[in-house]
Amino acid sequence: MTQDFSLTQEDLMAKYLFIESRDPYDSADSPNLLELVKGVRERNQDVMLFLIQNGVLATRDGARHSERYRDLARAGVSVLADSFSLRERAIDRVVDGVKPAEIERLVGLLLEPGTKAIWH
Amino acid sequence: MAKTLTIAIMDPPYETANTTTALRIVNAALTQGNNVTVFAYEGAVNLTMKGQQPHANPVKGTSVEQEQHPTTKDWIASLFELARKNSVKLEWINCGLCVDERGAGDWIEGPRRGSPKDFYEAAQKSDGILVIPAK
Q1: A119/B133 touch (CB, cutoff 8 Å), yes or no
Q2: Is there a contact between A103 and B130 if contact means CB atoms under 8 Å apart?
Q3: Smallest Cα distance from B34 to chain A, Å
Q4: S-S: B17 plus which of A53, A115, B97, B118, CB 3.0-4.6 Å?
Q5: How far apart are CA B87 and CA B69, in angstroms?
Q6: ipTM value of the model?
Q7: Which residue of B has its CA nearest to A20?
């Protein structure tokens, strides 16, 4: 028996909310998540990336790998960084394309109809 | 109108930032007037253990009072209080098998025993679902 992996109408209407808690310096699979985010966006899906905990580390303006978030934002991904996590790490200037956001925003996104949340 | 958020968590207390983040999310959702269901799985069943005690910090030479060491059971008790104050519902379900494995059944007031079936049913009824796995 073969499985059907074709997209359903629900899949096509979904908003994908990726929550990244890991950083590219410590976690070798962090770049893989960003590739996944990019790939889903290239399929014309509504994609959001919410960075939290050490996930915000590479958003510091000028930091190595920060350009990845800028490129995702240019590709149409909404890239948000948890303000609390930024403050904890003394990051007061983030790379272009990344917007600081409060945790309440994350709750709002989680409760939006059609959102599929993926934690990493 | 209140919505319902279901969160599954698996990390034990005092190990990772995931716990703090999960409790922040629950706090924000309740503050906004939403209902929340938490399914505590694996080590996360220890979060609500009643016997947790704050401690002094001998390295810094601070007392228990000065240290103000937070315990997860106190955080979660305050979330139940917040839910009551906001007239919304916080349902906290501890996985029964995980509890038995760990001998972790002495909880603060509020949580109940359940199974992954409860998580599935809560997810079916929820407006939003978040699973925070252990690393």
Answers
A1: yes
A2: no
A3: 10
A4: A53
A5: 29
A6: 0.93
A7: B132
Cβ separation A107–B34 shorter than 8 A:
yes
- Domains contained in chain A, CATH given: 9-119 (3.40.1260.10)
pLDDT in tens, B18-43: 999 999 999 999 999 999 999 999 99
Judged by DSSP in three states, A9 sits in: helix
- Distance (Å) from the alpha carbon of B105 to chain A's nearest alpha carbon: 28
- Residue located via tokens 């240019």: A74
Element (H, E) at B19: helix B17-31
Tell me how far the alpha carbon of residue A83 is from its chain's centroid. 14
- State the DSSP string of A72-97: HHHTT-EEEEEHHHHHHTT---B-TT
Interchain contact, B131 vs A119, CB within 8 Å: yes
Tell me the pLDDT of chain A (120 aa) as tens digits: 666 767 676 666 789 999 999 999 999 999 999 999 999 999 999 999 999 999 999 999 999 999 999 999 999 999 999 999 999 999 999 999 999 999 999 999 999 999 999 999
Give the nearest chain A residue to B131 (CA atoms): A119
Domains with residue ranges and CATH for chain B = 4-43+73-129 (3.40.1260.10)
* Total length of chain B: 135
Q: Give me the pLDDT at residue A110, please.
A: 98
How close A12 comes to chain B (CA, Å)? 18
